[in-house]
């Protein structure tokens, strides 16, 4: 898959509920070390950030991805608050300008010919959940029943069929009644990267996305997965990965072992428990497979015991073993769950 040689603008429009049109403009240029997607919306930086996230996640359904080019996307004006029907237009503009999708009978050059409405809560699966138009005018491409997934654009199977998803849970400890378990979910699909001069084959940015979290946590997620995959000999470049959290804001590294295990289960690198996998642990050296201790042993053990259900598998750092509360393991087993104290990842 190669981006078009021309850097001319491609446009795709979306119809607002009142009939007005929003225009998405896309251009492509050499990446030159910049982000692979850049978005702008007048007076609405949060919408631009959401657009970037949507496009990056939708790209995860593509079997091949060439990271040598940057696509610049812009909306001509800010949509109404809460309006998301422009998402499909942004995804299509990104695909058209890169030559990934050619609308039947619609050359990519002339502006304004393609109108598309649709939104999704799972672009990384290629799903198009619906649209917000009361009536779909003739010639408008609308997501939902008639276009349920991105594969249907080209008569291909549902991209979600190639995605493997697994969840693990980790304890959120704040020192009170708000203590709870939080899930982390890893969705992976095999990826083939373009080869050639200038290809950025090691780019974490184009292989792993964590929507809804801040830049610091996203960077940490990428570093953890890259290290853990290096340890098991399966590098990041073999997968397109989306990581989601049940809660977007939290502190500490207690989630790291759960993230690694969710990723390993999704990639078929570890056994699935009968119930959930509950884990806490972090590492300063995931490339060596080490699992290190985390803080708040006592309250986290209490939370894990309280939440344990039949079939659950609980993983805690080996460094915790001498300090586990008396009778804790036995109490967990009485609830039908199992416990392992681990010092390295592997077949646990």
Per DSSP, what share of the residues sits in E-state strands of 2 or more residues? Answer: 15-25%
Overall form: elongated
Number of strands: 15
Identify the strand order in the major beta sheet: 1-2-5-3
Helix/strand-derived category reads: alpha/beta
Which range best describes the helical content: under 10%, 10-25%, 25-40%, 40-55%, 55-70% or over 70%? Answer: 10-25%
Low-confidence stretches: 1-6, 107-112, 194-202
Please tally the helical runs, counting DSSP H or I stretches of 4 or more residues: 6
End-to-end C-alpha gap: 39 Å
The H-and-E topology, N to C, reads as EEEHEEHEEEEEEHEHEHEHE
Using only CA atoms, what is the Rg?
22 Å
Largest sheet: 4 strands, mixed
Calculate the mean pLDDT score and round it. 87
What are the salient characteristics of this protein?
348 residues; alpha/beta; four-stranded mixed beta sheet; 23% strand; disordered N terminus
Question: What would you say this structure looks like, in words?
Answer:
The protein has 348 residues and is α/β, with parallel strands linked by helices. Helix content is 21%, strand content 23%. It has six helices and 15 strands. The strands form five sheets. The protein has a four-stranded mixed beta sheet with strand order 1-2-5-3. α3 links the parallel β11 and β12. α1 packs across α2 (87-97) and α3 (215-231) crosses α4 (256-266). The longest helix has 17 residues, at 215-231. It is elongated, with a radius of gyration of 22 Å. The two termini are 39 Å apart. Mean pLDDT is 87; it is low at 1-6, 107-112 and 194-202.
SSE map:
Blueprint: E1 10-15, E2 21-30, E3 37-40, H1 45-59, E4 64-65, E5 69-75, H2 87-97, E6 115-117, E7 140-142, E8 164-172, E9 180-190, E10 192-193, E11 208-209, H3 215-231, E12 239-245, H4 256-266, E13 277-279, H5 297-307, E14 313-317, H6 328-334, E15 338-342
Parallel strand pairs: 3-5, 4-10, 6-7, 11-12, 13-14, 14-15
Antiparallel strand pairs: 1-2, 2-5, 8-9, 9-12
């Amino acid at each position: 898959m190669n981006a078009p040689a021309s850097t001319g603008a491609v446009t795709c429009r979306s119809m607002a509920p009142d009939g007005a049109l929003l225009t998405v403009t896309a251009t492509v240029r050499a990446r030159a070390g910049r982000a692979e997607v850049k978005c702008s919306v007048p007076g609405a930086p949060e919408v631009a950030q959401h657009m970037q996230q949507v496009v990056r996640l939708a790209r995860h359904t593509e079997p091949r991805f060439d990271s040598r080019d940057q696509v610049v996307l812009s909306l001509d004006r800010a949509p109404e608050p809460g309006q998301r029907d422009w998402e499909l237009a942004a995804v299509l503009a990104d695909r058209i300008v890169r030559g990934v999708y050619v609308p039947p009978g619609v050359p990519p050059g002339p502006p304004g010919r393609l109108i598309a409405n649709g939104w999704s809560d799972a672009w990384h699966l290629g799903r198009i959940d619906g649209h917000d138009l009361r009536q779909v005018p003739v010639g408008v491409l609308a997501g939902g029943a008639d276009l349920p997934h991105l594969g249907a654009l080209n008569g291909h199977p549902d991209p979600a069929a190639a995605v493997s998803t697994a969840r693990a849970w980790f304890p959120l400890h704040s020192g009170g009644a708000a203590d709870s378990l939080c899930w982390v979910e890893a969705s992976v699909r095999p990826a083939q990267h373009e080869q050639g001069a200038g290809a950025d084959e090691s780019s974490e940015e184009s292989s792993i996305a964590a929507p809804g979290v801040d830049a610091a946590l996203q960077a940490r997620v990428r570093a953890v997965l890259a290290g853990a995959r290096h340890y098991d000999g399966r590098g990041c470049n073999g997968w397109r990965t989306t990581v989601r959290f049940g809660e977007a804001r939290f502190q500490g590294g207690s989630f790291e072992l759960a993230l690694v295990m969710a990723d390993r289960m999704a990639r078929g690198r570890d056994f699935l428990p009968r119930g959930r996998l509950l884990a806490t642990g972090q590492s300063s050296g995931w490339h060596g497979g080490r699992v290190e201790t985390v803080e708040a042993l006592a309250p986290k053990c209490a939370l894990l015991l309280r939440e344990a259900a039949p079939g659950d598998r609980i993983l805690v750092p080996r460094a915790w073993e001498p300090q586990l509360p008396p009778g804790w393991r036995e109490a967990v087993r009485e609830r039908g769950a199992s416990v392992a104290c681990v010092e390295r990842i592997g077949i646990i």
